[in-house]
Amino acid sequence: MSFNKNDEVCLTIENFGNEGEGIGRIDGYTLFVKGAVPGDKIKARILKANKNYGFAKIEELLEASPDRENPPCPVYDKCGGCSLMHVKYARELKYKEDKVRDCIERIGGFERGSFIFNQIVGMENASPSNRPLRYRNKAQFPVGLNNDGKIITGFYASRSHRITPITDCPIEASVTGDILRAVKKYMAENNILAYDEVNHKGLIRHIMTRLGFATGEVGICLVINGDKLPFADKLIPLLKEAVDGKYNLTSVCVNINKEKTNVIMGKKLSVIYGRSYITDKIGDIAFHISPMSFYQVNHTQTEKLYAKALEYAALTGNETVWDLYCGIGTISLFLAKKAAKVYGVEIVPEAIENAKENAKLNNIVNAEFTAGAAEAVAIHLPKPDVIVVDPPRKGCDGKLIETILKYKPNRLVYVSCDPATLARDLKLLAADGAYKLIEVTPVDQFSGSFHVETVCMMLR
Ligand code: SAH
Fold first, then answer.
1. CA 14 – ligand 1 centroid, Å
2. What is the pTM of this model?
3. CA–CA gap between residue 21 and residue 131 (Å, rounded)
4. Does residue 339 carry a pLDDT above 90?
């Protein structure tokens, strides 16, 4: 049977889709319904109808799934940031766990039972619904104008560049809202214009904030379409007032981005207050983090993720280890404490600068860092006993997989933020029996969103 746009149908939601949407079937026709939960009985209106599947929205919730709950966010329906806040946290965790297992079995081609699959490591939280909130240490808000010409900050609505105004996002550290209000006040009082991406005019494009959960240090970076921030001396006291008392304002930077682009950060950074970085600690290791550098957003879960990665590396003290896609050297330095030598490789030069400082800061002398693409640099490094990779969502470059298969160390640890590309890469590594997948552990780093982190171990 096939359907047309605007048809109304009644159906029961059976599964979650890739991005947390509900999936139901009616006479063999598959419908993807945003905001629907397995167990819901709904009346839906079809928004787009293809031959065998379509997209629909909830017209009426006839019977609510027992896994539903009220999202603890006033703009949840409009904002494109989270997609599972209307689902009980335990069900969210199960969805993420199933998604990782499904990718590994279906895309990776690994048979169930042929590897150890651990339960997802969730967040422990004291909130009444058990949903973790205020866990993020980093936020990036676009700045713009509303229809009345008032300055707004917020997040982009799903699949768009319309800003949904938000000053207090419930997954962000609460100081973030105070900082946004301070920047808006500074802009209004000094006639500083918000950037308008349609005609490429105006100054302030984005506000980036970062809080060291372990140290209380706060870093703020304004991304501007210009060379200089006017009246910067007026901004600092407002920011200090917003931050100090609770935390320490440690770094205020300006990043210059004059390009017509969706990329948030430009290449040039200048410090307008304090230092160019904040310091945070994970376990007993301290890290300098520049605004240009990647740093895991969920401090509590990162400790668990790294502990698992370290366990999988099973170091005895004699090994040469590669840590590829190493960022500011976080995993590298934990590895270095238990290995003979660690080589870290990362493409962002500022992050490598941080990594080198971080080795010194912690008196670690057996870690060496190189700025460059992992796929270009790794081939020239001394032969490893263990390789750790932690690539961005697109996974490892094909050339890097070839290099790993050429050196074939005994042990691989793969940390991933996208289970589909993870499964693709694990399949390549397992081809012709080169490696065997031993163990997989999903970790919830991004509660409320459909994203999930995974750490895996393979042996030769
Ligand atoms: N392991 C680090 C960083 C992981 S995020 C941590 O846990 O903090 C992935 C990192 O890969 C980012 O820092 C990104 O800048 C870097 N990256 C992206 N493409 C790369 C490439 N081709 N080669 C090396 N690093 C790359």
1. 36
2. 0.95
3. 19
4. yes
